[in-house]
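Table S2 (continued). Query chain:
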Amino acid sequence: MTRRILERLAASVAVVFGASTLIFLILNWLPGDTAALIAGEGATEETLVRIRAQLGLNQPLGHQYWEYMTGLLHGDLGRSYATRAPVLQELAAQFPSTASLAVAAASVAIVVGVPLGVAAAANRGRVLDHIIQVVGLALNSIPTFWLGLLAILLFSVHLRWLPILGGRGVLASVLPAGCLGLAMSIPVQRLVRSGILEALQEPYITTLRAKGLRATRIFGVHVLRNVAISTITLVGVLVGELFSGLVVVETLFARPGLGRLAVYAVGNKDIPLVQGAILVTSVTYVVVNLLVDLSYAWIDPRVRLASNGDA
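Corresponding output:
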């Protein structure tokens, strides 16, 4: 098991290093003059030269990359071009709001998707199964921003149950978390349904039935445990994708978070801030999937035994 953990940690470090390098190269190859954007229209050449020198933009790309990676190893993500505040400080102020929204959306996806998948599998080919599939297809066809606008129109404008925009409280998180969670619940529901139907066809299920084991125990202990690994894997992937989708939702609902911060940074060509936001998103994705991978041994003892056998 220790060997498995070390292998996953090494792979995660390699992925983060590759992502950091790719982020740096892409952002520094983008067209446009950062110094001119900061100085504004009508800036003299002397002003542009001074700004480039202050920000280190006059240095060769290789030197800039070395400084960037050295700073990362020391926990320094640089300073924002626009505010001159440490990037790590800017990100730390926004990350809790984004993380809480992501956790809430993932919870909604599980609470909605898993029961619907179970209900669809238990009523395969019946009216309820068809209704769940049709509703899921309809929701999957609606873009998140359009679903958010409809939710604002219904629950905030007409019913006045929830705040329209902004805020950090629980009520302010209901609409954005609900919209993201519903979008995530569709693939979860489909995976649970197909996983249950596939597991019910396995020979060991027939054996358990022949031994007289109750159907509720077979379903609750054996079938759902087999489906749990694939479901958790999917949720881990969706949470990673969720951080990229938060840009739209946080902007739509005027919520503080990494998404709005990244939009602001891109608009100002604030390269250190953009690099930091993307890097935090990448690291979060890697960490979530690492935890998901390591949780397999806890969910299914066979994975633990296989790991011990490898060691």
